[in-house]
Amino acid sequence: xxxxxxxxxxxxxxxxxxxxxxLDGMVALRRTGPAVAPHVFVAGDDxxxxxxxxxxxxxxxxxxxxxxxxxxxxxVVARGCDERAYVEMAKRNQIDPERLVILGFACTAxxxxxxxxxxxxxxxxxxxxPAAPGPQNPIVAxxxxxxxxxxxAFWKQQFVKCIKCYGCRNICPECFCEACAMEDKxxxxxxxxxxxxxxxxxxxxxxxxxRCIACRQCEHTCPAHIPLTVLYDLMRRDMEALLxxxxxxxxxxxxxxxxxxxxxxxxxxxAHDPATIPLAPIGR
Amino acid sequence: xxxxxxxxxxxxxxxxxxxxxxxxxxxxxxxxxxNVLPIRVMCSGRISPxxxxxxxRAGADGVLVMGCHIGDCHYSTGNHRSVKRMPLLRNLLATVxxxxxxxxxxxxxxxxxxxxxxxxxSFTDKIRSLGPLSQEVAE
Amino acid sequence: xxKLIIDGAEYQAQDDQTILDVCRQNGIEIPTLCYHPAMEPxxxxxxxxxxxxRHGWSNLHTACTHPAWxxxxxxxxxxxxxxxxxxxxxxxxxxxxxxxxxxxxxxxYGVTEPPFATDxxxxxxxxxxxxxxxxxxxxxxxxxxxxDRGIDRQVGPPFLEKTRDCIGxxxxxxxxxxxxxxxxxxEAGVYAEKPLGPTAAIYVPSLQAVPRVPVIDTDSCIRFRQxxxxxGKIADAxxxxxxxxxxxxxxxxxxxxxxxLTVGSVIVATGFEMWDPKKLSQYSYGRSPHIITxxxxxRLSNAGGPTGGQILLSDGSKPxxxxxxxxxxxxxxxxxxxxxxxxxxYSLKHAHLVRDKTGAEVYExxxxxxxxxxxxEEFYERVQEExxxxxxxxxxxxxxxxxxxxxxxGEDADLGKLLAVDVDMVVLSTAIEAPxxxxxxxxxxxxxxxADGWFAEAHPKLRPVETNTDGVFLAGCAQGxxxxxxxxxxxxxxxxxxxxxxDRGEVVIAPTVAEVNRDDCVGCGDCLLVCPYTAITRxxxxxxxxxxxxxxxxxxxxxxxxxAIMALHFTDDQIVAQIDGVLAWA
Amino acid sequence: MDYKNTLxxxxxxxxxxxxxxxxxxxxxxxxxxxxxxxxxQGKLCxxxxxxxxxxxxxxxxxxxxxxxxxxxxxxxWDEALTLMAERLGAIKTESGPDSVxxxxxxxxxxxxxxxxxxxxxxxxxxxxxDHCARL
Lengths: 284, 139, 586, 135
What we know:
The complex is a heterotetramer. By secondary structure, chain B is an alpha/beta fold. Helix content of chain B is 44%, strand content 17%. The longest helix of chain B is centred in the middle third of the chain and has 18 residues, at 78-95. The termini of chain D are far apart. Chain A binds chain B through residues 143, 148-156, 181, 184, 186-187, 189, 195-199, 201-203, 205-206, 209, 231, 234-235, 238-239, 242-243, 256-261, 264, 266, 269, 271-275, 277, 279-280, 282, and chain B through 49-50, 53-54, 56-57, 69-71, 77, 80-81, 83-100, 104-107, 134, 136-139.
């Protein structure tokens, strides 16, 4: 697969469009010695160093370049999660769709399994065959049966490990704010690790409600090994059930929390009587 | 038995409906529980999840979010956002083990002084029966 | 310019004129049957025959087809001409002995009895072909034509069968000189022969219309109807009005114009719609021509209406008994809970008009008489003195009896008895309601609406013409039911409010608005989606708030993930201080 | 467009987490934890994530400062080193080597700190040497 990707990248970098313009570069991963890091390949580069592993949030690289260089046209070698990240970023003006070509490839079945990925392939699939979706995260799968006390106990031992490195935020392709609510002393008390009420993680979970595209970069980068994606998977599930929104699925779909009930209605309960809006099941 | 637990309840109220309804309840000399600590905002749409979490962190045992009925919003659709946000936040609280009943969203219009009194009473009773949040979180 | 002599006098003519044109233009009478100014001359009836002398040679010609050449001499009254016309009229009278137009013309030429016998004394058609030409050349419906030959020649649709291609425009009936064509309405509606609505495709909308110019009803106009049938392609049909209008005022190509104006204030005066009484079947509206709404009664009793202002039943007779039912669709939880305010007084006026114009007995079914305005109570008393029977109680049911009469049943609450009255006509004083598309206006201006659908004013007592969108005001029934004096007063107040803004130059707004910290904004655009006032725009990739439009709801503040928007006077820090404050104190 | 990720090691402590410093046309625009290194496995602490935040900080010193009349004044390296050699030499002569302590920065490289250690122990004959990040 990697050979095929290298070949296609080389072709794309040399292609000209109707106006005779070429891509200014292809965002992908490059191997230098034992290390692999994001890179922008240009025409003529040695593409034998192009890699697809490990996963980096390449759309963040695209976004940074798009913002700083307003005329640049890029390609990107993307996985399904990268493409979903692109959808939510482009929707929020962090990437200019007119200046990006997505060259998608499918993840392997093993990767899908590791990531609990429901859609381990991009819509712009150029290389590879779509693998079957990975299984649900086992914690998420049994969550409905957990009592409040069990959940509390579970998260308490997770959140207490948090060293507030902000790595989950920093690596997240959907966290592109200039100023972060998790650094606002009004919401997160400075100087305390693992505050009694875990506002830090809950604020992030709320902010992820219409954004988290389940790339799981946050969990991979967490030095405390907190299973953050359990929190976000549950949020994604509630979001889909209540508002029918699947982040990353559709560039044209409006972020439901920002628009009216006429634009995206509640799918459960009656907005006129919020008491009728059902909660997700809780174990007893 | 010691002194019965009296919950602290932060009630976010929109300026145009619920706050006016609460005001009318007072003018009409209806009694609402002193546990309810009102905070006025211009619209229920102004109430961010962060504010609710901050109230819990600062010692509230329950949080009431109140605004105009759907269709009656002074700003026409501010409350549409509350009715989407708050149920998600309730689920999130449940996810981390906080009883979601401690957060309630409800609509009270300026004309519904009796409803304001009823809602605040029943919510206070509910939180009283749930006990203090600190105890729940500390256990 | 051609010169010609007609009956001894010299006249001038244009190249494209016929002898008939010149004669008509100069008041020289020439009888015609098959001629119509909107159509090409055809020369079918030959009645316009005149004697034409050219280069000394005399001949008989039809004036409608002969060009008015230079140097012609024309005799319209010569013995030869008279003789031809007399013969023609004899033949016409023999074919159509009972048609008054033919009888009169024949008499003018000394023919009083048909010279020949006829098989069909009811024949009206003289086969002049006007109807054929109007249908094919003008209307372009191509529905009727001649068929058969000789004495069997006749006019009609193909095979003389009913055809769906007929658009029912009626042009053939209008041009027919002998009244040989009738339009048969297969589903004759209310007052079929004297419809309450417009009667022609061009009309002045109402006698008080401003400006008082006619309009073309594109639903009825033949040209537009044919255009619709040809999928919008411009049909070259009819256009008679354009041909005949001397002022050249008719322009079929006029389109609706959308004007783009930049204004500082808007007065929303979108008024009301009449509630449809068919929604409550107990009033039997639509089941009898004599159950009419108050609005239809207005039309009926209007001097410019179909009956010239007489209050008549569909058979042309005057009603003997009339019932007027108040609160139809108002104060009714099956329709509108509110009082429409205008109906009591217009119902009393209708009662007065019925008494005045027909002398009929009038039964007025009312729940309460809401004669609250200046002079209203006095009018109520006067109407009572005129002998109107007031029944306090809702008119509950209207039944159409087999004999066509109407039975109104209701309760007389004063007597505590059920009542049934048989009447000839029922006038339903229907409710007024918010226009069906008020939601579009509401979305356009960010206007709130009350539960009953009317636009919400900023405050019911203190700001009755303002809305919650600055610079947008309400006038009249857009805000709620109002009668004319109230509407005028409300509109005056709205105008004054607008003038106040114009005069002020600068406006003062509430300080509770939102502000963007542009350093923190990433331009995600969530706030743009949130704002109900379109106060936020993206400028150079970042949000910018127009403080004049912002109403300070703060929903954008709670939505902004960056915390880049601040609600002045309701900042996060202020709210946090309140949260901490109330909890510390408790 | 000159986009680069330069592999380096975190300077804040002894763990040795590796990271890529992301630059565009010579300007630092971000930090990526190195996911290919065995030690940190693509993870960083808050210091590592913000390792570049001082590089173009307004308060960062770019020249030596010398206190003159009670105020710190910018000086050249020659001037500063000359002054230090004179003053430290004088102090050592007057009060002995242990009258001076050497404090190194953890942000310096190993090699720099080795040289600093040599300076203290071999040149100055004192063991009074420590650094700011004794983790």
